[in-house]
Amino acid sequence: MAGEGEFDFIRTRLAPLTRGHPAALDLTDDAAVLTPAPGCQLVVASDMLVAGVHFLDSDPPEAVAERCVRSNLSDLAAMGAEPLGYLSSIAWPRTVSPAWREGFVDGLASAQGAFSLSLLGGDTTAGPGPLTISLTMIGQVPARAALLRRGARPGEDVWVSGSIGDARLGLEVARGALPADPYLLERYYRPSPRLALGQALRGVATACLDVSDGLMADAGHIAQLNGVRLELQAACVPVSAPARTWLADRGQAGLVNLVCGGDDYELLFCAAPAQREALTALAARLGVPLTRIGEVAEGQGAVLRDERGALIDTGTGGFTHF
Ligand SMILES: [Mg+2]
To answer: Rounded to the nearest whole angstrom, what is the distance from the C-alpha of residue 248 to the centroid of ligand 1?
Structure first.
């Protein structure tokens, strides 16, 4: 897009996404002007999706937009932040059809509606390809209360929200490598950023992140940053009913695939054992399952153990067993 076409697109399709947020100035100014609540710090996260790398060419444009917004919101959730709005920068190749662009904007609108979110600004440009989408999510958190990845200490519990592995299986459904399964596909296309949970974990979790690279890899990130070892129990890893069905005849190798998959967008966090009761109550209050899956120990790395305490080899990290 260039010239008049782009201005029209901004005015007719993108400007309504501001939903009248005063910071956006109807997308008619050079920049957004944002006022955080008194005593708050801004939390800013950016995420880039490239066609053919981060999503499939066959993915519906609405789903690409939803994943983009939701995965970015998940980064704010991991920091304990409340979203304020976002910027969207898109390089459209000339081969992208008007219908695809319309579908993408519909997906943005749908995701925004689910989280009362407004578009605050951004940029669109035509490019030689591939389609590249960058969202910048802006949130706020009370000063010095942001959840960080550093802070875990030996003796603490390791918790994870929701279930692990659904998105990885959903990707295989989208690729046609697994039979149709609406639940798994939904978990891949429309992950649930745990915003309320993240905000409730402020002052409770000692270290927190959202699982995007895979449970084991992300547990490894917490371990490395804190100079500790995360000991996870395979039997405790929460899996959904469809994932359990998939696991039935695959056993341990299947579980390794799920804990090494990615895009779960669940929160993985550490907390003192004294918080167990409070966390159980929090899970009930929010309607978000929280599962204690292991503990923080002296040492390094993240390991997975079977019921007899033997180490499970998760080293290859590949997702191959179909
Ligand atoms: Mg993250």
So the answer is: 30
pLDDT tens by residue, 143-184: 999 999 999 999 999 999 999 999 999 999 999 999 999 999
The Cβ of residue 245 has, within 10 Å, a number of other Cβ atoms equal to 12
Domains (range + CATH), the chain: 3-142 (3.30.1330.10), 157-312 (3.90.650.10)
For residue 94, give the DSSP letter: T
| Structure tokens that stand for 101 in this block | 């662009």
Would you state the torsion angle of the CA atoms of residues 116, 117, 118, 119, taken in this order, to the nearest 10 degrees? -150
Between the CA of 269 and the centroid of ligand 1 the distance, in Å, is 12
Residue 110: other Cβ atoms inside 10 A: 15
How many A from CA of 220 to the centre of ligand 1?
Answer: 14
Q: From CA 311, how far away is CA 303, in angstroms rounded?
A: 7
Note residues around ion ligand 1 (Cβ under 5 angstroms).
75, 210
CB of 70 closer than 8 Å to CB of 118: no
Q: What's the token pair of residue 181?
A: 């399964």
Q: What is the pLDDT of residues 252-282, one digit of tens each?
A: 999 999 999 989 999 999 999 999 999 999 9
Task: Report how far ligand 1's centroid is from the alpha carbon of 167 (Å).
Answer: 15
Residue 114: both structure tokens together: 């689910």
| DSSP codes joined into one string, 267-318 | EEEEE-GGGHHHHHHHHHHHT--EEEEEEEESSSEEEEE-TTSPEE---S--
